[in-house]
Amino acid sequence: MDDTRVHDALERLAADAPPSSDAVWQRTQQRIARRRRTRVLVTGALVVALLGGAVGVIAAVRSNDDGNRVAANGNERPTAPRTTARATSVTVPNVVGFEVSGAHERLAGTGLLTSTTGPGRLVYAQNPAAGATAERGSTVVLDTCPPTGLCVPPMPRASAVIAVPDFRGMTVTAADAERARLGFDGGVTIEKYHGTSRDHTKVFWQDPPPGTLRRAQDDVRMWACPNTERCVSPPQDFIDFGPNAVAWRSLPMSDPQWSAFAPRKFGTPDALARAVVDMFDRAPESPGRVTYIVPNKNAASAAVWVQIRNAPDDSVEGADYALGLVRRNGQWSLHDGRSRAICLRGKDSDNNCL
Amino acid sequence: VDGTAVARGVDAALGERAEVRDDQTFAALFAARRDAIVRLAYVLTGDGHLAEEAAADAFAATYPRWKAGKVDDPDAYLRRAVVNQIRGRFRRNANRRRFEQRPHAATDTPASDSGVAERDLIRSALLALPIGQRAVVALRFLEDRSEAETAAVLGISTGTVKSQAARGLEHLRAAVGELEPGDR
User: Fold this and answer.
1) Do A6 and B176 touch (CB under 8 A)?
2) Which residue from A39, A93, A316, B12 lies 20 to 30 Å from B32 (Cα-Cα)?
3) Is B159 on the interface with A (CB under 8 A)?
4) Searching chain A, which residue's CA lies closest to the CA of residue B35?
């Protein structure tokens, strides 16, 4: 087969090529337009990104200038609002739920400094609160909690606490209305028989129990059935964490009240204290303090907020830790933020809990 | 009207407007090169629809660089663009499977039609070649370009053109040689 024959064969094959039509030109035009649009979008995105970066850099430089001036005066980072040469008021943005780096960036963009407390990376509270007016250059204090595991917000001030009423005996409709009237605006779970009317089904059990103090945003859970005489009290899926679960806040481990609560959940208060201390490789004599315990809605776990201080009189600042208390197969166990089991009675040679 | 004469006329017009890179000139360039590019794409893909798609992509890819004055030789640039488009398309498995599973028209053609049979053999033999060899064979033996021109268009060395052409030709000889001389 010579080159001429190949050429002829290819020519005959090429003769089958599609004839001239406007289709190719139209497709070409469409593709050119699409490329133009893409280029405009990419260019626009680049311009926005560059402008945003420039604004961030300027804000950061200003923020650093402010910090340097404070440092030059012999102080560390400022911890309270202060007056600057530019006494311009700004509105504090919300940074609750942000990571600390993101919160710092956002506040710096507004001209505010940050100071963090706690061991974690996620912001669960801020002071001043979002929407408040602060002077440019003043400091917003951020409370943080670990990025994984349970994160419990700090307890509210007394004025923000609501006494839980006795919903028992009320119809579901009336109990729900009463809950809303008192200002509970958190989640509400009503366990009742399917197909029964809210107007004729009565509450026979509630969590939190009557008389306890709760925050407005806390969850309220009620159990209801059509015939209260036949209802089983307490419900099978209810775990009693004690009448004043929130009152465990700031209760020292040495307090005798722990005897009533802790043995059932943790073994002994001392065991919990040792477990918490061991987990963080601290000296056994370091005092542990469970600040508060909040059961989760499903009652299969709870959040434990623990403070560990380096000195009995709390003179040395320690750290706060959020721990998870999990019930599995009827046994309770304490976990850190990485779901690592904390052994109450030590570990064997294979690193398993005794 | 003779298509070659039209192309020559357009080339002359393009030559006069070589420095003018507006949409009108590009439309003239498209009109002058469209058939050749689609033909090349058809030989490389064996499929009319894919050929038109690849040609449109090649023209669209050429346009911004041509308008910016970065294309010295639109002929070569368009050919390389169409080869690259087809190479990219065949890399995507979905398209390849779609193409390979698609029954070719020649499959249903009666065996007595010897011209169609030869085209089918050539097409199958070409498609069995790697895209690089296919492009070299098409430029060398369909467009009658020299080894140097083929090398310049594809951006490869003359030695590579020689070796690719030899291998491609050997494969085609084996395929077309199956036909009896009387079949042509």
Assistant:
1) yes
2) A39
3) no
4) A20
Rounded to two decimals, the pTM is 0.40
Establish whether the linkage from the previous residue to A234 is cis, with ω within 30° of 0: yes
A20 touches chain B (CB under 8 A): yes
Per-residue tens of pLDDT for chain A, all 354 residues: 567 777 787 888 888 888 777 778 888 888 888 877 787 777 777 777 777 666 655 655 554 444 343 333 433 333 333 333 444 788 888 887 677 777 888 888 888 888 777 656 667 778 888 888 888 888 888 876 544 433 444 433 333 567 788 888 888 889 988 888 887 776 677 776 666 788 888 888 887 778 766 667 667 778 888 766 667 666 655 544 443 343 333 344 455 544 444 434 444 445 555 555 454 444 344 444 454 444 444 444 555 555 544 434 433 334 445 556 555 565 556 565 444 455 545 566 776 655
Instruction: Give B2-11 contacts, CB < 8 A, sequence gap 24+.
Output: B3/B35, B6/B32, B7/B32
Give residue for tokens 């507006």.
B22
Report which of B128, B129, B137, B122 is spatially closest to residue B184, judged by C-alpha positions.
B122
Which of A16, A38, A42 would you mutate first to test chain B, the one with the most B CBs within 10 A? A16
Angle at B28 between CA B24 and CA B32, to 5 degrees: 170
The answer to whether B141 contacts A7, with C-beta atoms less than 8 Å apart, is: yes
Q: Do A25 and B38 touch (CB under 8 A)?
A: no
Contact A25, B34 (CB under 8 A): yes
Contacts of B173 (CB under 8 A, 6+ apart): A1, A6
Closest listed residue to residue B37, CA positions, set A227, A26, A14: A14
Residue B123's φ and ψ, nearest 5 degrees, are: -60, -45
Q: How far is A30 from chain B (nearest CA, A)?
A: 9
Query: Is B55's Cβ below 8 Å from some Cβ in A?
Result: yes
CA distance A70 to A88: 18
Residue A317: in which H helix or E strand, if any? none
CA-closest candidate to residue A273, choices A338, A342, A209: A342
Question: Are B38 and A18 contacting, i.e. CB atoms less than 8 angstroms apart?
Answer: yes
Q: Do B60 and A23 touch (CB under 8 A)?
A: no
A322: phi then psi, degrees, rounded to nearest 5: -100, 125
Smallest CA–CA distance from A10 into chain B, residue: B142
Mutation target to probe the A interface, by most A beta carbons within 10 A, among B113, B122, B126, B171 is: B122
Closest CA to A293 of A317, A265, A318, A316: A265
Cβ of A14 and B39 within 8 Å? yes
Residue B50 and residue B71 in contact, taking contact as beta carbons nearer than 8 Å: no
